[in-house]
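writing this on my phone so excuse typos. first protein, seq and then structure
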Amino acid sequence: MKILVINGPNLNMLGKRNKVIYGDKTLSELDATLKKEAQSLGIDIVSFQSNSEGKLIDFIQEHSSEADGVIINPGALTHYSFSLRDALADSGLPAIEVHLSNIYAREDWRAKSVISPIARGQITGLGWRGYLAALRTLVSELKGESRE
């Protein structure tokens, strides 16, 4: 089983940007934590980050045929990227949308996600632990385990 972990714009700055909102873990540290958890679950993950919307779409199109699911933090693209939404939908893969901060407790414009209607679920406000929750949930569902 292979899961794509996709991070959008500015997430390469984790550990440097506003730590009150985004925490102090770097993207490399987050990736290492996810890889360790993936190994314990007996699965592979492929992590990718870009500040470019087109590169994110290219990555999804190039890798979706060899993957079983997607965990995505689209960053600010969450709120307006219909092309990213279409690429995720066209992949046919179950996706979980993750946000480090609680997007509903911030500026009003952040509360709208164009990704969530095509996502299997959304995890927001749990910091880096949200990625672990997404990974465990997605793997359980792909293995056919009940949500209850």
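second protein below, same order as before
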Amino acid sequence: MTFPENLRYTKDHEWISFDGSVATIGITDFAQSELGDIVYVDLEDVGSEFDQDEVFGSVEAVKTVSDLFMPIKGEVIEHNEELEDNPQLINESPYDKGWMIKVKVENPSDVESLLTSSAYQEMVGQ
């Protein structure tokens, strides 16, 4: 299981990376392994705006459906369209090909409430 140092994490198992005012968001390697085989991803539309901790979609695995929570306040500017036909990319490559959305960051200070890699690892017992 991997926990890239350059990412920030939520207690709800989302990861986030930043490139200027754009953030990329997905679920962690730990989350995908706990969910099992992901069969469907439902994401809100491009242009949707969310406050920190609001639900922005869900992932459906063989045995369960899990909500996705926005790590920061922002507007969805892009979806990973490959997930429509290949949701298993989340299982295969959660930090690369399995990213979910890109968001225009509204409040950069939101990052201060997110977990570092080591804090997230400690939270999940790794």
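The radius of gyration is 13 Å. thats all i got for now
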